[in-house]
Amino acid sequence: MHRLPGVRERLEDEYTRIEQMVRTRLHPYEGEMPTFTRLPERGIPQQQVLEWMTRLRERETPAWQTGHVSGTVYHGGEEHAAFLSQVYALHGQSNPLHADLFPSTVKFEAEIVAMTASLLGAHPIDDPSGGRGSHQTENDGEQGSYQTDPDLQIVGTVTSGGTESILLAMKTYRDWGRAERGITQPEVVAPVTAHPAFDKAAHLFCIRLIRTPVDNQFRADVKAMRRAITRNTVALVGSAPSYPHGAIDPIPQIAALAQEHRIGLHVDACLGGFILPFIERLGYPVPPYDFRVPGVTSMSVDPHKYGYTPKGLSVVLYRGRALRRYQYFTYTDWPGGLYASPTLPGSRPGALSAAGWAAMVTLGESGYLEAARRIMETATTVRQGIEAIPELRLMGVPLFLIAFTSDSLNIYEVLDRMAARGWRLVALQRPPGAHFAITLRHTQPGVAEQFLNDLRSAVNEVKQGKATSKQSEGMAPIYGMANSLPFRGVIDEVLHRYLDALYDL
Ligand SMILES: Cc1ncc(COP(=O)(O)O)c(C=O)c1O
User: Taking 60 as the threshold, does the pLDDT of residue 129 lie above it?
Assistant: First the structure.
């Protein structure tokens, strides 16, 4: 007698389907290139390896180079990339852990931090006004002290990416809370839209992360944050802007709350830190978000996004030298010697800092300003085009990252149809939506227009109920499931299987 498949069997079938889909996507070169599960007995000639590498690069480059991908590669210009590779090669052996051997990396990293801080409201020594911006801060009129007063100085360290910067800031507040307030069960309050790196930090450092709702523009609900504060709260979090919707949280209000409770405020400007200052200078309305706002005590900023440096470079900044101390790790009793490291890893690639520094000084303010101008012009075209499609609706008030949804169509089906046309957008959930982060790749002639043409066609197809040619490979069913299933464990299992698939040969 046949038994109807139970929930468990149906789930297993669904898992298998998703696994197969993920596998074909993540391992597309099977059969095309040898697979190594152990070292080759004899080394393979360099020429052969270079041939393989070139082939892989040629397969993977067009999608982002032609501007079909949201975010991801923020500059990608051939000349810029070739120059950075040249600098990387020059410093390929350097390791900042051995600062005495490679003092050039000390110079590069200290200057990366100083240049980044000066963009975000720290006053450079030779120009107390910072040459920009008009937000009033309680420190106006005493700017000189920014450089001399250790409590006001904006200091920081270089890290490997936005996640590490956020992890370190959260560890810093945990240790600050313990040392200065006797808080042994630290809590951090963050809007639901803040990056999952905050959850990762909470998980790793035994912090309780309290997520609070956002308003109808996807900005932090400050009242909800106020209600979430307890005597164990060590810090609040805001984003400038948030990854999902590109919304800038009301930083001055959150900062006032932080000051009232004498706790930290971390502003996550991983995405915005290298573009918002220039968007502001271009005259677009940018609400206050950086160290010019009293009460902002730390920031994470990613040169490896809109700073156009190679991947693997971020900066974490603090107001005051004392706060940065809580980030450091030192060990004095190791037989291997005295050990001191400012961030999470030990050895690090000094070449990344060399290339990052080189990107910053070759682009200069004028380069970043021009890039921001082009990006904002393209973003305006894309935004207006989306606004003109009746089935779509913008989510929040976009600047350079445009989030949208649909009240009448399944937005994930629209995304799948865009994928079939070669476009890679980001799917949002809770509520369903999509976003497209505009980069320099999209400012190439015709890209925005092509995007909008394809978006209109995709919407029309979904409206007419046309099936995609490869329905079973689309993301719509997975996101449909993620949005509708109350059992997060099932989705979690899918994610774990995805991670397994990364390393399964
Ligand atoms: C707002 C924001 N914060 C943090 C991160 C994490 O950065 P990373 O991927 O470099 O670790 C991102 C990445 O997109 C981001 O957009």
Answer: no
